[in-house]
Amino acid sequence: MRQRGTTVRSIALAAACAFAALMPAASRAADAYPVRPVTMVVPFPPGGGADILARVIGQRLSETWGQPVVVESKPGAAGVVGAGAVARSPADGYTLLMAAGGAVTPDNMKDLAPVTLVSAPPYILAVSASMPVNSVKELIAFAKAKPGAANFASSGPGSASHLAAELFMSMSQAKMTHVPYKGIGQAVNDLVAGTVTVMFGPPPPLLPHVQSGKLRALAITGSERSPLFKDLPTVAESGVPGYEAVGWYGVLAPAKTPREIVARVADEISKALKFPAVQERLASVGATPVGNSPEQFGRFLEADIAKSWDLMKKAGVAP
User: Fold this and answer.
1) Its pTM surpasses 0.85
2) Beta strand 215-220 with 124-128: parallel, antiparallel or unpaired?
3) Nearest of 310, 313, 290 to residue 302 by alpha carbon
């Protein structure tokens, strides 16, 4: 009788092993993921919106996974350098990219796998406290009266902050001088100092300085007023009808990362974005959480890249 029981257990064990062997390796890896620290690369200098959101999301994921999420800055070429570094990383889910507009291009999109859209906030049109303007119409009048005297900062040629200003100039006929930086953090610092005078920038790094009075917010760049900035009009209603420029922050992985792991990360980030403490932190820096599927984010990116590159061609901006 004991021999028969042993035989049954042996058969059951063999069947279980055979079933496990039939399971796709990617599925088993996704179930165990992550078993070691995860690196989230920010392709911009520290202090910008992508850096802030990466740290907020990373902290929550660390608590959920029981593994550290290390935020690493790799700036250069408006985000393209860091995006390239992630694209060349092992496609195992342990290297992720917290990107923003400008970092993902037609050239590197094929080497990256969209994971999820974290936030797509309207930008803030802000000026230094030294600028003698208090509205969009006054800024346009100033820029037309003194072509090139107003200089606008961006996080680099072809970045979302650059293209938002280019669109503004093309639609308003205002003339301003472009001053590109290697990241939004230093650009904001110089805007506060008055070295540059205008910026179309993401809310996270700008909002604290607006609230302290060091910067003056004139409008937001969305098509509608934001519930997070109820007192700020849109650029469109302030003198440039039809104007709209929305920034975005999203997570991507190397292109060949197993779909099961990509889906797992997307799901975990979407859950993190629903966590009250995360929502509160994002709201404090003017970012509304999104969280969607890899397929939805992929379609969003295709549309955004097409729009951005069309604007670059019309504005004569070199890729």
Assistant:
1) no
2) antiparallel
3) 310
